[in-house]
Amino acid sequence: MALNSVRSSIFARGRRDAANSTANADYQRGVAEYNDGRFAEAAASLRQAAEQGHAESQYILSTMVDAGKGVRQDDAEAARWERLAAEQGHVYAQANVSFRCYSAGDLAGAFGWCQKAADGELAWAQYNLGLMYQKGEGVARSDADAAHWYRLAAAQGFAEAQQRLGDAYYFGQGIARSYTQAAHWYRRAAEQGNARAQFQLGHLYDVGLGIEHDYAQYRFWTHKAAEQGHEEALREVKRRDYRDP
Question: Does the domain formed by 171-245 have CATH 1.25.40.10?
């Protein structure tokens, strides 16, 4: 499951994108202080707003405490503020609570909080919910449900979900097999730099499944994947290059 790989980026996106549901002077001051690089002052202002129940302040404060930014690092305090924001429906906080549960081995808790964030249309959570359904982590295994959540995240441009949806179409897992659709979603992920999607797209060009055979495109995408260290692509490049002019 890919929870670790995106947690820090969720913090960054949350600070930038999460909606401020109610005007709060302490929150507004804290954001200004944060943007000026005055992190200790920002933490103090945000704490005042957080203690008033302001969800976005609770969330941002949790990320600062988690990172020790302008305040002493404290996992327990970070988790407390995170959960308070999550209980108010803050989707980034819900995603991070899911991460904490998963890291602690509480798969049912991880699934529950991930479901809440996914229902809030957070693409990262939709993707991870798909993974949990595919692997049967915290929920009964279901390829159909996995494909459903991959599709929602893929439609938001989430590359890993696009690649997984391509796999679902390629193998017919939880969805009717379609090499044309597999090629479509692999391409979208490949263009964002997803190495597996690049390799799979190259393969489809090589064999002419769902897309017209094109040896130049096969070489292009296979080399792209190899440049990122994709093991199958590296073997393929080594196997095929000696025969090319």
Answer: yes
CA-CA distances (angstroms) from residue 244 to 180, 220, 238, 239?
A: 28, 13, 11, 10
**What is the C-alpha to C-alpha distance for residues 83 and 72, in angstroms, rounded to an integer?**
19
90 CB contacts (<8 Å, ≥6 apart)?
A: 18, 55, 56, 58, 59
Comparing CA positions, the residue from 192, 77, 179 lying closest to residue 123 is: 192
List pLDDT tens digits, range 58-101: 999 999 999 999 999 999 999 999 999 999 999 999 999 999 99
How far apart CA 156 and CA 228 sit, in angstroms, is: 24
The one-letter amino acid at 100: R
Would you list the domain boundaries of the chain? 171-245
Segment holding 206, helix H or strand E = helix 195-207
Residue 109's CB is within 10 A of a number of other CB atoms, namely 16
Buried b (16+ CB within 10 A) or exposed e, 137-174: bbbeebbebbbbbbbbbbeeebbbbbbbbbbbbbeeeb
Angstrom distances, CA of residue 29 to CA of 32, 65, 105, 193, 223: 5, 18, 38, 39, 50
- Side chain identity at residue 132, one-letter code: M
CB-based contacts of 150: which residues, under 8 Å, 6+ apart? 126, 127, 130, 161, 164, 165, 168
224 contact partners, CB below 8 Å, separation of at least 6: 190, 195, 198, 202
Instruction: Round to whole Å and give the CA distance between 132 and 109.
Output: 12
5-24 pLDDT per residue, tens: 344 443 334 433 444 445 79
- 226 sits in which H/E element: helix 215-227
